[in-house]
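Model the whole thing, not chain by chain.
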Amino acid sequence: MSSRWVPKWEIQKIEINNREESICYDTETKLYACPKCGPECLKGGIPRSSSYFFNKDDLINHFLAHKYLIWEKKKPKEIEEEEEEEEDEE
Ligand SMILES: [Zn+2]
């Protein structure tokens, strides 16, 4: 429907706390997406609300925060991660 952004998700396996977790990586925008915030990405969809990260470490930190239930069941209020701002990668 929307043609603004067609992510090409690549499911990556990473190890977090000795557990293997699946995360989403968009090869188009080079962004990592949190599959807990936006599980749609695991199925190739565009998450309605999710958290995106420029690097894996940030995602891992965020992922760990889920474990500690920081966000628990609270209504996620649009956590906007300034997706537009490209950081120099080097
Ligand atoms: Zn998340």
